[in-house]
Design goal:
291 residues, alpha+beta, Alpha-Beta Plaits, seven-stranded antiparallel sheet, 11 helices
Length: 291
């Protein structure tokens, strides 16, 4: 009995050394783990939520929720038919085009055709009121050499001839479509030489996290030095681009700029009869102040 009592006391001491759940799930530890784990496969902003409720798969350089666990099927179906179901489509890649409207439309007409339906110059889409969808082809090669389907949104006009266009493509198609866009607009020179620091080089940040974790409660959370050492959630680049590569190119002749905005602009899809009411309750119009 004495040996059992000593053993129980020894086990209690070992358990006391391990951190409690609250300490393990402190914000500083969660963010450090978030940054560390997406070195191989990029995580979406909603990754942790999905990882608890979905079977995760590694595709196209991302870690995505593929199918819900058994307990989630009825909830998802109920939300889709009676309420509102939200899907995170942020793994889709966003290519941004900036330049004069006539120059953009002139070159974009080479990679699509009116025979397939709407084009980039459709009035309802060109005004920025509606999103358009079409199939892209290699320049002047229609109906052969199809690149794949895309969706696009024009930024509404502001009175200037300079326009902004966002093209959303599947990550499996991004490299081919980006290469074709750079070719037709002759965007070869990188616009920005400074390349964003990748997640893989944040060793110093991890050391700071280890120091903070080891100090525990000795350092106050309100301390200014402590705030500087707390890491920020990083989602740099995407599954289809190396962090050291350029992400923006410019054509010196026309001034057209192509930028890879993947993982910089989040995209969600709402399905269900209450989708509109959810949006109206969530989004509030900003008060525009005129000087």
């Amino acid at each position: 009995s004495e040996k059992q009592a000593e053993k129980a006391v020894h086990q209690k001491k070992e358990q006391s050394k391990t951190k409690c759940r609250k300490a393990r799930r402190r914000h500083i530890n969660l963010v450090a783990e978030f940054n560390h784990r997406q070195r191989k496969n990029i995580w979406l902003e909603t990754h942790i939520w999905h990882a608890k409720r979905f079977h995760m798969v590694k595709k196209w350089g991302y870690c995505l929720g593929n199918s819900p666990t058994e307990k989630s099927y009825r909830a998802c179906y109920r939300a889709m038919t009676k309420h509102c179901l939200l899907q995170d489509l942020s793994y889709y890649c966003c290519l941004e085009l900036k330049g004069k409207e006539n120059e953009l439309l002139k070159q974009l007409a080479r990679i699509c055709s009116i025979d397939t339906g709407l084009t980039f110059q459709e009035a309802c889409c060109l005004s920025g009121r509606f999103e358009g969808s079409l199939n892209l082809y290699r320049a002047d090669r229609y109906p052969e050499d199809m690149l794949g389907p895309v969706t696009f949104i024009w930024k509404p006009r502001n009175g200037s001839e300079n326009r902004q266009l966002w093209i959303w493509v599947h990550p499996a198609l991004k490299q081919d479509i980006l290469r074709e866009l750079k070719a037709i607009f002759q965007c070869s020179e990188p616009e920005e030489i400074c390349i964003t620091e990748p997640v893989t080089t944040s060793i110093q940040e991890e050391k700071q996290v280890e120091i903070l974790t080891s100090l525990g409660n000795k350092r106050k959370r309100e301390d200014k030095e402590g705030e500087k050492a707390v890491p920020v959630k990083k989602i740099i680049g995407d599954g289809t681009r190396d962090p050291f590569q350029s992400y923006s190119w410019i054509a010196r002749t026309t001034g057209v700029t192509i930028s890879d905005r993947s993982m910089e602009i989040l995209r969600y899809r709402l399905i269900g009869p209450l989708s509109h009411s959810v949006l109206t309750e969530t989004l509030k119009a900003a008060s525009v102040q005129t000087v």
